[in-house]
Amino acid sequence: MIPMNLLGAGKKATYLNTGVWSKKAIKEARLFGEINVAYSSEEQKFNRVPTEDEYSVPEDSEYLYLVSNNTIYGTQFPTFPTTDKMLVCDMSSDILSRRLDVSKFGLIFAGAQKNMGPAGVTVVIIRDDLLDRTPEKIPTMLCYKTHADNDSMFNTPPCFSIYVVGEVLKWLKKQGGVVAMEKRNQEKAALLYAAIDATDYYRGHAEPASRSLMNISFNLPSPELEAQFIGEATKVGLNGLKGHRSIGGCRASIYNAFPREGVVKLVEFMQEFEKNNPA
Amino acid sequence: MIPMNLLGAGKKATYLNTGVWSKKAIKEARLFGEINVAYSSEEQKFNRVPTEDEYSVPEDSEYLYLVSNNTIYGTQFPTFPTTDKMLVCDMSSDILSRRLDVSKFGLIFAGAQKNMGPAGVTVVIIRDDLLDRTPEKIPTMLCYKTHADNDSMFNTPPCFSIYVVGEVLKWLKKQGGVVAMEKRNQEKAALLYAAIDATDYYRGHAEPASRSLMNISFNLPSPELEAQFIGEATKVGLNGLKGHRSIGGCRASIYNAFPREGVVKLVEFMQEFEKNNPA
What does pTM read for this prediction? Predict the structure, then answer.
């Protein structure tokens, strides 16, 4: 919907290609405008995000598009670009996990299913002036203005999912809000990365400067040990550690809802596993 | 999505305009092809659907589009058109309420929120050969083939809503399936229409031959009596009887999940109300 609403014949935008979601976004955007891919880490298996001196944003770009956190590869922009161009950002996997300056963004969107609620509802934060930019002749349902003008009730909205998002937001507030969540997420990730860095047995997929606080992707000395690791972890209640099939290995997803105690337990399990299964 | 997938430059389709949903569908379809509106009951406040001799479908139409049941006006196609052209049908408000010959349809779609489950999930039944008709250059997410090829999991689907639909389908099966549901719906609607026809006090909005088995729209002698009727009904647990703001009056929605006993109670209340509040 973003390029459909914000681009159009002759219009340009700049994209940073840091994973499968940005790659898909680029493919779709090319249907609606001229897309400049200013940076790509695809050849390094998306193991990093760029620093600002690694790309530039042409003057005629309508916006700079980035995916804030890349779940599969465990990378995340530690800070957001400082360009004068407005940012458009997919925050599906790290919204509400850390503070940010919303004023730099023209549009933020996030599928709820990581930090906000059930799959099936997407939050969009859009700058008011962008609502009138939509080219003519796009379908009504795909026009951001339609939803803004109708308080998100142009169609029957997914009421139950929205209700659950509301409950999650109340919970988040009770935890101390985004400020407390950010601190907790930093602590959780630090514990886990420290465990990985403490030994050569575990190797992080992401370059240290690009490490995600949400998804920690790592490898063991061999695929066999990885399979054994995932199997034994599942038996003691540490589920979902299998990495995405596109890069293999292991991945710990420690979203807002995942407790610090779970990370401590995982770290202990990792140390134990290494001792019992030398490379 | 339908015209986007099935039409394209120079292609034509025929639409029957029997209510707000068909009207909206026509507006969107015009973005993607040449639309022939073969029938409209808009001037009669959509109080009827056409019989087959009231419209014709040109030979060069890709499909004939209709909305099976019109919730606001309480009209419903009692039978489906027999044209050789494939039918494309919005069954959002009466799917699973009666038997039908699926083979006549190229595409059936239905938002779940009436007879199938929670808002936020839509069921699409599409003929296999139509999957390859999509013009180039439409966004991947809006292409039916994408979803068919990926078992409806191209994106993270609304899992909870789909789970609830599954539970509703199990319930439906236990009730005796669509056959039993159709019989029950006919009985429920017959009870209510008999009550309306038994007196001049209540007047049905829809012409008798177009009456819906799902939504029964009717009027009382005055808007004041209607307001009083709705208020008193709510007090005895008969909720949601207010008609849609576009036509006013009263409306009883008696979808699959609404029990026969509820209809009996409503009929008794109607008789009582008329006695106590003569026109």
Answer: 0.93
What is the residue range of B70's domain?
2-171
Of B171, B192, B218, the residue that ends a domain is B171
Predicted local distance difference test score (pLDDT) of residue A279: 85
Specify the pLDDT at position A254. 97
Q: Minimal CA–CA distance to B57: which of B39, B45, B42?
A: B39
Q: Which two tokens stand for residue B273?
A: 């109300």
Does the annotation mark B171 as catalytic? Answer: no
User: Mind giving me the DSSP string for B222-237?
Assistant: SHHHHHHHHHHHHHTT
What is the percent of chain B where pLDDT is above 70?
100
Chain B residue numbers with beta carbons less than 8 Å from the beta carbon of A28 are 139-141
Looking at A117-266, which runs of residues are DSSP E strands?
122-126, 203-204, 215-219, 250-253
Q: Are A56 and A32 in contact (CB under 8 A)?
A: no
A94 and A202 housed in the same domain:
no
Q: Does A163 touch chain B (CB under 8 A)?
A: no
Per-residue pLDDT tens digits for B160-197: 999 999 999 999 999 999 999 999 999 999 999 999 99
Mean pLDDT of B127-141: 92
CA-nearest residue of chain A to B2?
A139
My answer on whether A194 and A161 are in the same domain is: no
The CATH number of residue A196's host domain is 3.90.1150.10
Contacts of B120 in chain A (CB under 8 A): 120-121, 157-161
Q: Is B150 on the interface with A (CB under 8 A)?
A: no
Distance CA B256, CA B93 (A): 10
Put simply, the answer to whether A157 touches B120 (Cβ < 8 Å) is yes
CB neighbours (10 Å) of residue A47?
Answer: 19
Is A119 in Cβ contact with B159 (below 8 Å)?
yes
Note whether A12 and A62 are within 8 A (CB): yes
Is residue A77 within 8 Å of A104, Cβ to Cβ?
Answer: no
Do B124 and B185 reside in the same domain of the chain?
no
Given A11, A12, A21, A242, which residue is catalytic?
A21
Q: What is the pLDDT of residues A88-125, one digit of tens each?
A: 999 999 999 999 999 999 999 999 999 999 999 999 99
Domain boundary among A171, A191, A222: A171
In this predicted model, what pLDDT tens digit does every residue of A232-274 receive, in sequence order?
999 999 999 999 998 999 999 999 999 999 999 999 999 999 9
Phi, psi of B277 (to 5 degrees): -135, 70
Nearest 10 degrees: Cα torsion A99, A102, A106, A109: 40
Nearest by CB: A160 against B118, B139, B156: B118
Structure-block tokens of residue A201: 């047995």
Residue A134 confidence class, pLDDT cut points 50, 70, 90:
confident
Q: Looking at the DSSP assignment, which residues form a beta bridge with residue B122?
A: B111
Residues A140 and A235 in one domain: no
Measured CA to CA, the distance from residue B185 to residue B191 in angstroms comes to: 10
Could you confirm whether B200 is annotated as catalytic? Answer: no
Burial of B254 (0-12, 13-18, 19+ CB in 10 A): buried
Q: Is A21 a catalytic residue?
A: yes
For A195-205, what is the mean pLDDT?
97
